[in-house]
Amino acid sequence: xxGVQVLILAAxxxxxxxxxxxxxxxxxILPGPSELTVLQATFRLWRGLGLPCLAVVSDSAPWxxxxxxxxxLAVLSLPTTGMGDSLAAAVRRTPEASGWLxxxxxxxxxxxxxxxxxxxxxxxxRIVVPTYQGRxxxxxLFGRNFAAALGELTGxxxxxxxxxxxxxxxxxxxxxxxxxxxxxxxxxxxxxQLTRELPxxxxxxxxxxxxxxxxxxxxxxxxxxxxxTRELQLTTAESCTAGKVVGLLSEIPGxxxxxxxxxVVYSPEAKQRLLGVRPETIERHNLTxxxxxxxxxxxxxxxxxxxxxxxNTGLAGPGGADGIPQGTVCFAWGYRVGDDIVLYSETxxxxxxxxxxxxAAARHSLGAVVPYHQRLExxxxxxxx
Length: 385
Description:
The protein is α/β, with parallel strands linked by helices. It folds into 2 domains: 4-203, Alpha-Beta Complex (Spore Coat Polysaccharide Biosynthesis Protein SpsA, Chain A), CATH 3.90.550.10; 214-384, Maf protein. It has helices at 15-19, 38-47, 62-70, 83-93, 112-120, 147-151, 160-165, 185-197, 199-203, 214-229, 244-249, 268-275, 279-285, 290-302, 354-367, 369-384, and strands spanning 4-10, 53-58, 74-78, 99-104, 127-132, 135-136, 140-143, 168-172, 234-238, 259-264, 308-314, 328-337, 340-349. Strand 2 (53-58), helix 3 (62-70) and strand 3 form a beta-alpha-beta unit. The chain starts with a strand and ends with a helix.
């Protein structure tokens, strides 16, 4: 049976936002450098879960459907804007689903980890509701047994009756984003503070993050073009980023011509067996060290036809180890020059939870490929003089 379906309800008129002179709230630009609209950020949040997503939009705002398709989401466009009507139509549209995770189009501040915690509690006969400081929020996960009741909803009330009468399991979650929607221009402005309070969101909606920032995605595409014009291929050796570097590259069409291979090596044994990291290096310098990262990069290039390697090792969390704080990541970049391998390395410290650190580290891994290669070329020219 197919799994849980994400339903993003984005058909509402946003009358309070309009009445305050703010226009279409879903088209409003979020504070900060990302230049993403509220709805675009919401779409990317849920798309990032890897679950099928259906955007429910209004016929009166065709730009929403166009945006959803642009972001790779399925679309259900309706003549009505009531939440009950939207939810009922969406459930009827996806009868094969094992459940429905219902999200709102004006709530891009929910942390992905929240959704994962709800999904762990999924049951056909259960409604799972997140709470923060004892108060319910969104998204809400409905089990398959509620299909008939959901399919009969009408008007603006949504599923409030089911939440009063159904078998509800509340899950307390450390995520203020489950309460933060945008009803007025003041709400939008107040999200500046929220982005400082929630480290996960502080990374995601800026150009510092490949999933959320168009600017940085363009930078990654430029990096791939740089490699292509020089006929360079890339290999990766990831530890704390757990494959996210290659995952980000795969977001760009045609990136496969530049990706030769990728390793994900968590344990010391895997680093030694697959990449040739020496046990004495680990013992002397710690797993989280530039020395280990450099041997990982060199090892990735050793048995690969690629000319460029990215390696990282660190502590994404939760918590630090051996006196090294959470968020510490050591990087290395390797470049094949004839029979030699030239290595560069550095250590960075990132704030936020585990996912925020992983994403920031993946972004940094990719962002330094071109600058270090250009440095290599300059050094080679200077040495040739």
